[in-house]
Amino acid sequence: MRPASHRFAALVVPAAALTGAVCVAHATTTVSGVNTVSVIERDFRISAPKRVSNGNLLLRVTNKGPDNHELLVFRTPSTRLPLRSDGLTVDEDDLRRFKRSSLEPGPPDSVRELRLHLQPGRYVLLCNMSGHFMAGMYAELVVR
Known about the structure:
globular, disordered N terminus, five-stranded mixed beta sheet, Immunoglobulin-like, mainly beta, single chain
């Protein structure tokens, strides 16, 4: 087993990803007290608004990549996420208590919806299929 200090990957959201996350294509709308948030999955990135209001959310997730992608939502305890021993995927068992919800892998061109209730805090949206997270397929979401 590798030392704990080597099992963690820094979660650094590139400035380019944040710039794309605030464009009009990823707007948040509110209907009947539910905020609808547009999330776009591509190989290998996730685009979403950088900030949303707390409460009831509907994530409308569109897969625009040529591969299947899943979506996991974690309330993050820090800026680091633990990796499995493969070094390519997030250790979901270590983060079980922080997991808020997930969507099973969806095929290219699919649109899936995920309803959840989020409290204020810092969250990470990610695809944890082999190598996808390490390739940059995650986005930080601040809930105010």
